[in-house]
């Protein structure tokens, strides 16, 4: 006696699982007096090209590799030494002091860069280290945007939004500082400076100048509002 059974054949593809309904006819056979149902047969043409087992593939790693190909630039020690010898700004610090190897400040470019220098905490967070200007600049850029939007919405000054009664601005600032600090330190501790990344107009040079302008602007905004006691953008 034949019984019609509906079987669901699961095929594995790169984009997930796909269920294909198949109507198969199962036959019964006798083995030692017992009725044993034979396994349904699936046509080979249906499974051809449907099952792909790609072990070892990591989609996150693939995305990271694609981003690295389009944005990352490898900075070698030879390039750093060449720039150190030819760039006038690397021959003297802002105060006019000549960088000296082994000195706490100012240090030669090859010693303060994450690609070739020490990645210890004191080296990264030194006055001429890779972290302070990067982190402060990014916080200032976020702070300026937040100040403009916050003052437009609340009519309060930056200080009032931070420490005013019932305000949560200080909590948000501390959270943002932690997130940006961690996100900035991950590539630095991995031996990658901001100059190693660029995408169109988004370059390390543009980020530095925008960060410097934001730091000056945010400081001026806070000081001005302390004297005027009113929100400039409100």
TrEMBL record:
<feature type="transmembrane region" description="Helical">
    <location>
        <begin position="170"/>
        <end position="190"/>
    </location>
</feature>
<dbReference type="GO" id="GO:0009507">
    <property type="term" value="C:chloroplast"/>
</dbReference>
<protein>
    <recommendedName>
        <fullName>Early light-induced protein</fullName>
    </recommendedName>
</protein>
<comment type="similarity">
    <text>Belongs to the ELIP/psbS family.</text>
</comment>
<keyword id="KW-0934">Plastid</keyword>
<feature type="region of interest" description="Disordered">
    <location>
        <begin position="80"/>
        <end position="114"/>
    </location>
</feature>
<keyword id="KW-0150">Chloroplast</keyword>
<keyword id="KW-0812">Transmembrane</keyword>
<feature type="transmembrane region" description="Helical">
    <location>
        <begin position="211"/>
        <end position="232"/>
    </location>
</feature>
<keyword id="KW-1133">Transmembrane helix</keyword>
<dbReference type="GO" id="GO:0016020">
    <property type="term" value="C:membrane"/>
</dbReference>
<dbReference type="Pfam" id="PF00504">
    <property type="entry name" value="Chloroa_b-bind"/>
</dbReference>
<keyword id="KW-0472">Membrane</keyword>
<dbReference type="InterPro" id="IPR022796">
    <property type="entry name" value="Chloroa_b-bind"/>
</dbReference>
């Amino acid at each position: 006696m034949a019984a019609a059974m509906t079987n669901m054949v699961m095929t594995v593809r790169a984009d997930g699982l796909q269920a294909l309904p198949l109507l198969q006819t199962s036959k019964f056979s006798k083995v030692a007096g017992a009725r044993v149902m034979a396994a349904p047969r699936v046509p080979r043409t249906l499974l051809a090209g449907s099952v792909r087992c790609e072990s070892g593939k990591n989609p996150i790693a693939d995305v990271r590799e694609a981003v690295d190909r389009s944005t990352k630039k490898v900075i070698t020690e030879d390039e750093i030494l060449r720039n150190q010898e030819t760039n006038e700004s690397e021959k003297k610090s802002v105060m006019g002091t000549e960088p000296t190897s082994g000195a706490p400040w100012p240090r030669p470019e090859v010693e303060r860069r994450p690609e070739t220098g020490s990645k210890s905490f004191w080296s990264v967070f030194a006055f001429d280290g890779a972290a302070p200007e990067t982190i402060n600049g990014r916080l200032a850029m976020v702070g300026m945007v937040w100040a403009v939007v916050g003052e437009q919405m609340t009519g309060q000054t930056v200080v009032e939004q931070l420490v005013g009664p019932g305000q949560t601005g200080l909590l948000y600032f501390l959270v943002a500082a932690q997130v940006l600090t961690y996100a900035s330190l991950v590539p630095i501790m991995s031996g990658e400076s901001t100059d190693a990344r660029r995408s169109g107009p988004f370059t390390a040079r543009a980020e530095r100048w925008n960060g410097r302008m934001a730091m000056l602007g945010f400081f001026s905004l806070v000081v001005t509002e302390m004297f005027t006691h009113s929100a400039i953008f409100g």
